[in-house]
Amino acid sequence: MLLKQKDFLNIDQQLSFNDTILQYQWRITPINDSTSNINVYIKDVNHSLMNKLSIPFSDTNFEKRTKRTIIDFNNLLNDHIEKFRVTVLDSMQQLPETYCAYIPLKASQLSKAQGMMQNYPMLSTVLVNNNVELNGRPFLEITDWNREVDSISFNFCYPIIKSDSLPQNGIIKYKKVNSFRALKAIYNGNYITSDRAWYALLDYAQMNGIKVLETPVEVFFNNPNIGGNEIEWIAEIYMPLKE
C-alpha cells in the first residue's frame, strides 16, 4: 500500500507479512541518466523498539525478512528493466490535429494493454467493414491518471477521415483531437509497461523545469495480438506541455 509519494524520488509504502506490518521509506538519488543510488529505511510498526534492542545481538526475523525483501526486489527490478527501453528525445514535438474513432475505457495502469487488445478487433473491424478510411496509427489518449489508487481513464483511438456516414453502434464514438506541443519518448517493449515512459517524461520535465499535463498520448506501431519480439515493438509517447 502506498502511504505517501512526495515525488518520484521519495516514496513511502506499507507492506503486510502475515501479522507483521512493515513501513518502507524509499529515498532515490540520481547519479546520472541511467544510474541511481537507493536507500531504504524499514520499520516494523508493531515491534520497532524490540527490533532496535535485538538486532545488535541476534539475527532477527525482521532482519532476515528485510534482507530477503530487498534482494527479491533487486532481482525483480533488474529482470524488469531488461525487457524494455525508453529514450527521451531532447526536443519539443508538435502533434498534428486529427479526427478519430474511439472507445472510452477505464482500468489500472497494468490492465491498459489488455483493454486495448480486447477492443482493437472490434474497433478496426467495424471501421473496415463500413468502408471508413483510416488515417494513421492507433493511439491511446489518457484523460485521467490517478496514481494513488492506480486508475486511469483513457480513449483508445483510431485516426480516420471524417465523413457523413460513420457507423453508429453505441460503443464507438467520434471526435477531433486538437494539435498540441509535447515532450516525446520512444518506448520499446511490451505495451503492458509502456507507462514506464510516462514516468521518464515526467522526470525529464521536472529536471528541466518544464510544466506538463499528466495526460500522455501513446501512438502504437505494432499490433500486440500478432505477437513477435516485444523489445522490437515501438510506441511513441507524448507528454503535453502546459501552455
Order the strands across the largest sheet as they lie in space.
5-10-12-11-7-8-6-9
Helix content: 10-25%
The CATH superfamily label of the largest domain reads Regulatory factor, effector binding domain
Instruction: Report how far the terminal alpha carbons are from each other.
Output: 34 Å
Tertiary shape: elongated
CA-based gyration radius = 22 Å
Low-confidence sequence ranges: 48-58
Structural class: alpha+beta
Task: Offer a concise description of the structure.
The protein is α+β, with helices and mostly antiparallel strands and 243 residues long. Helix content is 24%, strand content 40%. The protein folds into two domains: 2-82, no CATH class; 88-240, Alpha-Beta Barrel (Multidrug-efflux Transporter 1 Regulator Bmrr, Chain A), CATH 3.20.80.10.
Topology (SSEs and partners):
Blueprint: E1 2-7, E2 10-17, E3 20-30, E4 36-44, H1 48-54, H2 61-81, E5 85-95, E6 98-107, H3 112-129, E7 139-146, E8 151-159, E9 173-177, E10 180-188, H4 196-207, E11 217-220, E12 234-240
Antiparallel strand pairs: 1-2, 2-3, 3-4, 5-10, 6-8, 6-9, 7-8, 7-11, 10-12, 11-12
What would you say this structure looks like, in words?
- It is a single chain.
- By secondary structure, this protein is α+β, with helices and mostly antiparallel strands.
- It has 2 domains: 2-82, no CATH class; 88-240, Multidrug-efflux Transporter 1 Regulator Bmrr, Chain A.
- It has 4 helices and 12 strands, in the order E-E-E-E-H-H-E-E-H-E-E-E-E-H-E-E.
- The strands form 2 sheets. An 8-stranded antiparallel beta sheet has the order 5-10-12-11-7-8-6-9. A 4-stranded antiparallel beta sheet has the order 1-2-3-4, with no helix packed on it.
- The two termini are 34 Å apart.
- The model is unreliable at 48-58 (pLDDT under 50).
